[in-house]
Each structure stands twice: as C-alpha cells, then as structure tokens.
Design goal:
By secondary structure, this protein is mainly alpha-helical. 63% of the residues lie in helices and 4% in strands. It has a five-stranded mixed beta sheet, with helices on both faces.
Length: 838
C-alpha cells in the first residue's frame, strides 16, 4: 500500500515524540543523579538520617536514590562490630519498607552492579532482585557475577538452575579471570554443580593465581580451602599454599578462624604442625578471653587435643563450670573433642550427660548417630540416656528412607549396651540392601556380625535371621563389585569400607575387580589405588607393577607427598617391581632434586622421618636426606613439632626415628651417625610374660641341645632387636653352654637378656662358632594369604645377619600345619633347621 504524505508526517511525529520522551527521561535521571538529594543520602552518618530523607522525599526518589540509600545503610552497618549492629531496627523501620517497595518497583531501571549490590547487602529483597539479575546474567561483569553467585550460595541455592548457568559462564570465561578474589568466590558458589574436569581446571587456575600475587588475602585462601572441602578433595599443592597464607596472616587468626581452619583440615585429612604451633601459642596466650559458651567450645575443640597437662586440666575445669550454657551443637562438639582427647574425666562426662537430656530432641539423625558413638567410645554408663537414644534412633529408623541414614543407625545401634536385633532392623536392612553403596553395606555388615556373635549365645531364631541377612548382604556386595566399571567411583566407595567384613568377604573380589579395571589406573588416582592395596595387605603383582609403571611414567605430575605413600606400599609389602632400581631411584630423585623448594614445602620434620624409615626398609639411604634428619637443629625442630601431634602420631614418629637410626648405624657406618636411642629402647620395650608357645619351644630346644643352659629365650640383641630364641653352635655343630660363656641366666618368666650396645659384656666366640637366632613369624609378618614376608621382618633378618647371627625364621603356616601336628615332627623340624649346613 502506498503511503500518503499525511501518513509519512504522522510517523515522523511519533518518532519525534519517542525521542523526546527518551531524552527527557534520561535528562531527568541525570539531573536527579547530580542533585542535592543524592549527595545528602551519600553523606549520611546514621541510619535515621537516611530514613528521614526517604520520608521527606518519597515522590522524588529514583532508582539511583533507592540504590544509594540501601548501599549507605549497609555500609553504616558494616563499619560497626557485630554486637553493635542494628539490623533488626533497620528491617523493622517503616521507611525501610518504603525502600523495599520502591526497590522492587524500580529494579528494572537499576544498573547491573546496583542490582547485585542491593541483593548482596539486603537479602530481604531477594525475590525480585534475583529474578532481575537472572535476566541480566550474561551482561554482568565478573565482579558482579561473583557477588551475585555468593548471594545465591548464602541463600542455600546450591543446586539451583541459576547456579548451573553461572557455572557455565565461569567455564566459558575462566581463562579471562585474573583476580583470585573473584575466582575464590565463584569457586565456592558453584562447587556443588561442577564436573570433575571443570573442578580440575578451577584448581589449576587457583594454583596459578595464588602463586602469581605477592600478597594474597587471608579470606581468599580460606575460600579456596572451603572449596576443597565442598568437593571433598585433598589437593596438596593448593592446601600448602593456603597454609602458608594462613601462617603469614597471624593478625586474622582469631578463635573463629582457627577453629574453622582446624575443622577444614580435619575433614580434608590434612595437617600441619607449624600451623598447630602458631595456633597453640595464640590461643594459650589469650585463654582467659574465651569465657562464653560459643568461643570456649571452639577453644576446647582446637586447643584441647594438643594442650599440655596443666592447660588441659584448666580446660576441663572450665568446661564443667560452663556446661549448663552449652547449646545442643556445642555439646556435640565437646563430646567429639573429649573422645579425640581420650578424656576420661568422669565429672565432665557426667555433666555432659546431665544436660544432654534436654537437648536430645534437637538433633537430626546423623547428629544423633555421632552423639551415640561418642558416648560409647567415652565409656558412658548411663543406661537411662542410652534407652532414650535407642528410642529416638528407632523412631528415625522407622521413618527414614535414605540408605546412608538407615545404615548409620543400624551400625550405631549395635554399639549400644545390651543391644538386640529386632524385627524392624532386619526388615529395614533387607528392604534397603539393593540401594546401598559399599560403605552402607559395610555399616550394616559390621552391626550384623556383632549381633550374630551375641545372639548365638541367647536367641537362636534371631541369630538365624541375622545369618540369612548377612548372606544377602554379601551377595549385594559381590554384585556391586562385579558391576563396577569406573575405577574412580569404586575407589571413592572403598575409601570408607574396612573391618572384618571387608577383609574376610569382599577383599578377594575387590582385587579381581581392580585387575579387571587395571587400565584405568592413572597418575591422578594412583595414590587412592595405593591406599587400597595398603588396606588390603595383598601382594598382587599385576596391580603393584601397574602402580610402579604409572608412577615412573608420570613422576613429574605426582605430588611429592603422594610419592611417600606409594613408596610405603612397596616398602611394607617388600615387593620389588620389574625395574626396581629405576622405580626407587626415580622416586627418590623426584623427592630430593630440589630439596629446599620441594621437600621442605611438602614435608614437615616428622614426615621426613617417616620417609627416611620407609626408604631404609627398602634398603635406600639417600645421604642428603639422612644428614638432614640426623642434625641437631632438625631434631630440635622435630621435638617442638611433636608437642602438638596426637599421642599415636608421636609414638609412631619416635619408633620410626629409632628404627632409622638403627638401620643407618648398621648399614651406613660411613655416614658416622651415632646411636642415640639406648635410653628410649630401655624405656619403651615391653617386657611381658613369655607365652605358652615360647615355653613349649624352649623345652624342645633344651631337649635337642641337651639342656636349658644351651639356649636363651626372649633375647635383646645389640640395637635392641628382640629374638625369640638364641643359641650358639661351635664349628662342629655342638651347642655351647651359656654358663660356660659366663653369661648369667635370666628368669624364664620374661626378664630379657640385655646386651650392651658396645658388646662389652658379650664374650668373643670360639673360632668357627656361630650365634643362631630362631624367630617365629606370625601372620602379621606376611602379606594376606601369602607366604611372602613383609618389609619389617625382612629388615630384621638382614640386620641380625649383620650382627653376626644365622637367622632361622619359622613361618606360622609351617609350624601350624598338619605335617607338624605332633611333637616328634616338630622336634625333627627344629633339628633340621638348627643343624642345616649353610
């Protein structure tokens, strides 16, 4: 249709009107943004001033006025300490309601950053602002996107489609992010919706940015650690960098941050003695400041397990006096810490029990499970409390449909005093079995095995039901292993599977499954795979060779601390892979190639001792590592760090240091390392009664040799090896009497013969004579279902031979065999080994 001149003029007038309206609107906005009202809002120093201006100028307020007013209100609050903030006063003020309504009405005209800032500062406006920000998501700058993501995270929208959309944007723009603050916020916000490959890219980016900046703020490192907790990954390179930042940021280490970091490290299985020492000093200096239940609970959680006797007693006394004020969560934390401290303070335990009665209804199911476990391990004997716990647990069991919860309830119910299997337990377990993962099956199996042992003595019918259910459970476990086709997922499940059921039922099938999936072993999962083999105690040559091959081929990709555990596997199992020297030398070279930058940042002093011992068992003594450990300043630092470790860790490190010292003295005399564990060995070595097997064998040896004075029982050698029996044969294979050697006999009931380390009391043997050490090896000396001797027993044999012994090691599977079921057969067996020609 042709346009008439009138139509053309009409259209031009319409366009001109739109342009004028658009220009007028923007001029008004620009005028208002520069007017006195905006300046007055931004100049306010108190909330009431802001509200007064809002009340007098409601009709004039633009979106910029509203955004500025809300921002000023937040900034005024932020300047005040937490106890002095007046958030409730603001939210309940009539003029804040006005701002609330105006913000919702004008949100479409607000700038992107204003929308996000308003949402961040005032969560009461979440609905309208989230919707508006979602519409503009693609146009948000990275700082605004990170702030918006954090708002959603704080509102517990962890799995929302909107978080997924943000994750997609981050994935697309990851290479352009150069600010660790922005990255750290985005990482924790999207942590619940990312894939493993995306997670790895985020970790690499975070590692890059943490290393690029000279000064990284404490909060950024804290967010990175939180991200690792969220994705349940112990990634040592990042954790070590975060830990260094924490150590440099002592001014931020208040009780709240210290307890948070301790909690993160605990969940991630990461520990750092240097951080513990700093925390211990800071908390010990300010112990009097924590006089309210919240801060004292955090103090008890962090300081309690590493406190000395005086501070520990002080904490316990304060805990008793403050107990009445503890919340349900704080009681749980206190009991958890008491259990970790192995606290047997009956007064404090009774106090906790007395206040627990009023808190029991506040716990959700998993908290109740943990609570019950702590009380049992603390040896609580309050039957009334356990009865209440049992009723609550039964209530949760009846209503629960979640396999993990049901399994946890059943496991902990078996721990209760006088616990019995009831029909509901059998029915619930039977119904949920097909849905259970391996850790859940393990929980139920552990309970059933315990109940079955008890029930067989009391209620035969229930015992039969338990046995049938256990068989079904075994079948489910086998089926889950046989259907497994992803090694990473399998390793994740097996991490939490252990105990009698795993060792006796699942272990063999687990090894078969691992062999089937052997091609999926990579440098990324080789550590978890090594942990599995350590747990199984199985010497599976095919799997061990695969680990060695993957390690050598990818040595530069594997973290040094992970190399330690791989070496530990081969050392403890006493297994040499095909290219044994190449494997160990590559691993050692990787560990010590750049000592100052590599080992010292990855290993603490006690870790280096453990590493040195593992290498010594395998027969390797890198001089640079040995000289570093046996150094006065190193040993002094070690003593300091051991103060903050658990008693179990202390004992392990002390034992490994002694064994390493002994190995170096015997195998590397050229290093001139002195033996300094004489007093330690005298103090630690157990002097118990001689068991019936030793007494029986001692009588047979006396019969073979011609008298008890020809053999010694429970002998301590130089360097404090204990051997079951010792005798001396001359060059003609005739026994030599210890009486003739002028060595006094010890009491047969267990007093050990102690040789002086310098052999001052040890008489020289006649020419051609030989000392014989006869050792009985129990199942612990061998790999599971194997005749192959493990590392520690092999080292002992090696060292005894260096001390001049001919070593006879008698395996349990030979001595307990049907072939040696008679005394005559045993006598003949001993004679053969004693008199065999070397």
């Amino acid at each position: 249709v042709a346009k008439t001149p009138e139509m053309v003029i009409h259209n031009k007038m319409l366009c001109l009107r739109q342009v004028c309206l658009f220009t007028l609107r923007h001029c008004q906005a620009r005028t208002l943004s520069n007017d006195l009202l905006l300046s007055q809002i931004n100049s306010c120093t108190h909330e009431d001033e802001v509200f007064s201006l809002i009340g007098r100028n409601k009709a004039r307020l633009s979106e910029k006025h509203v955004g500025s007013a809300l921002n000023v209100l937040w900034q005024l609050q932020k300047k005040r300490p937490l106890p002095l903030r007046t958030s409730n006063y603001i939210k309940n003020h009539s003029q804040f309601l006005t701002l609330h309504i105006l913000a919702k009405n004008k949100v479409e005209h607000m700038e992107n950053e204003v929308v996000v800032d308003t949402l961040y500062n005032h969560d009461s406006l979440a609905g309208a602002l989230v919707t508006e920000a979602w519409k503009r998501l693609e146009r948000l700058s990275l700082p605004a996107l990170s702030k918006f993501a954090l708002c959603l995270y704080k509102q517990h929208m962890h799995f929302s489609p909107l978080i997924g959309k943000i994750a997609h944007i981050v994935d697309m723009k990851l290479d352009s992010i150069q600010d660790i603050r922005i990255l750290s916020v985005l990482m924790i916000s999207i942590s619940d919706v990312i894939s493993q490959s995306f997670r790895d890219r985020l970790l690499q980016k975070a590692e890059q940015l943490l290393g690029a900046e000279d000064e990284v703020r404490f909060n950024y490192a804290k967010r990175i650690a939180l991200f690792l907790q969220n994705v349940k990954l112990t990634y040592h390179p990042l954790l070590e960098k975060c830990n260094k930042i924490f150590l440099k940021s002592a001014c931020h280490l208040d009780i709240h941050n210290i307890s948070l970091i301790f909690g993160l490290y605990e969940q991630l299985g990461f520990d750092n003695a240097e951080f513990r020492l700093v925390a211990k000093q800071l908390l010990s200096e300010s112990i009097d400041d924590y006089n309210d239940p919240e801060t004292f609970t955090k103090l008890f959680f962090t300081l309690g397990p590493m406190a000395g006797p005086k501070v520990r007693e002080r904490l316990l006394v304060t805990a008793v006096s403050m107990a009445e004020g503890f919340s349900s969560h704080q009681v749980l934390v206190m009991l958890k810490t008491m259990q970790k401290m192995k606290c047997r303070n009956s007064h404090l335990l009774q106090k906790m029990v007395s206040i627990l009665h009023r808190h029991l209804d506040n716990y959700h199911v998993l908290q109740l499970v943990k609570l019950t476990q702590y009380l049992v391990l603390l040896r609580c004997h309050n039957l009334e409390l356990f009865d209440k716990l049992k009723k609550l647990l039964f209530g949760f069991l009846k209503s629960s449909v979640i396999p993990a919860d049901i399994a946890a309830i059943i496991r902990v119910m078996a721990m209760l005093p006088s616990s019995q299997v009831e029909e509901i337990i059998i029915n619930k377990a039977t119904a949920v079995l097909p849905q259970c993962r391996l850790p859940h099956l393990n929980c139920i199996a552990t309970a059933l095995v315990k109940w079955n042992h008890y029930e067989q003595l009391h209620w035969q019918n229930t015992s039969e039901l338990c046995a049938k259910l256990l068989q079904k459970l075994n079948d489910c476990g086998f089926q889950r292993l046989q259907k497994a086709n992803n090694l990473d997922l399998l390793l994740e499940e097996l991490t939490y599977v252990n105990g009698e059921w795993f060792e006796e039922v699942l272990c063999e099938e687990t090894m078969a499954t691992c062999q089937r999936l052997i091609d999926q072993v990579t440098w990324a999962n080789v550590l978890q795979f090594s942990f599995l083999l350590i747990k199984t105690n199985r010497r599976c040559v095919l799997l061990l060779d695969r680990i060695a091959s993957v390690t050598v081929q990818n040595i530069d990709k594997i973290h040094p601390f992970e190399i330690y555990f791989i070496l530990y596997l081969f050392s403890i199992l006493n297994y040499d892979p095909p290219a044994n020297e190449e494997f160990f030398e590559n691993c050692i070279q990787h560990l010590i190639s750049n000592l100052s930058k590599c080992i010292l940042s990855c290993f603490e002093t006690h870790h280096l001792v453990l590493l040195g011992h593992v290498l010594a068992v395998a027969g390797y003594f890198p001089p640079i590592l040995i000289k570093m450990i046996f150094n006065v300043s190193f040993l002094s630092k070690l003593d300091t760090q051991l103060e903050v470790l658990s008693d179990t860790s202390k004992q392990k490190v002390h034992s490994c240091l002694m064994k390493l010292n002994r190995a170096v003295c015997l195998e590397c005399p050229e290093l001139h390392i002195p033996w300094f564990h004489e007093r330690y060995c005298q103090h630690v070595l157990f002097k118990g009664k001689i068991n019936s097997l030793r007494q029986h064998v001692h009588r047979m040896l006396a019969e073979i040799l011609g008298g008890s004075h020809y053999t010694r029982i429970s002998v301590l050698t130089p360097y404090y090896y204990e051997i079951d029996f010792e005798c001396i044969l001359d060059k003609n294979k005739r026994p030599l009497s210890y009486m003739a050697q002028n060595i006094l006999l010890d009491d047969l009931e267990g007093i050990h013969l102690r040789y002086d380390i310098k052999d001052a009391r040890r008489k020289a043997l006649p020419p051609g004579a030989q000392r014989i050490a006869l050792e009985f090896l129990d199942p612990k000396a061998f790999s599971k279902d194997s005749c192959h001797m493990k590392g520690e027993s092999a080292v002992k044999k090696r060292h005894l031979e260096m001390l001049g012994y001919r070593v006879i090691q008698i395996p349990h599977f030979e001595w307990n065999s049907m072939v040696l079921s008679t005394k005559d057969a045993q006598l003949e067996y001993l004679k053969k080994h004693l008199y065999e020609t070397q």
